[in-house]
Amino acid sequence: MKAARLYNTEQPFKIESIPEPQLRSGSVIVKVLSTHVPPFTNKVISGELGYALPEFPFTPGTSAIAIIEAVADDVFDLEIGQKVFCDPYIYSQTAGAKPDAILLGWTGLAEASTRLQTLWKDGTFAEKVLFPAQCLTPLKEAESFPAEKLACLSYLTIAAGGLTRAPFNRAQTLVVNGATGGLGSAAVLVGLAMGAAKVIAVGRNKEQLKTLEQIDKRVISIATEGNLELDSEAIRNTANGGADVAIDLLGGVSKPEPTLTCLNALRRGGTAVFVGGVSVDIPLPYPKIMLEELTIKGSFMYPRHIPNELLKMISAGTLNLDAIKVKTFSLDEIETAIDRASSSKGLEYCVIVPN
Question: Most buried by CB count within 10 Å: which residue of 105, 139, 148, 254?
Answer without folding.
Answer: 105
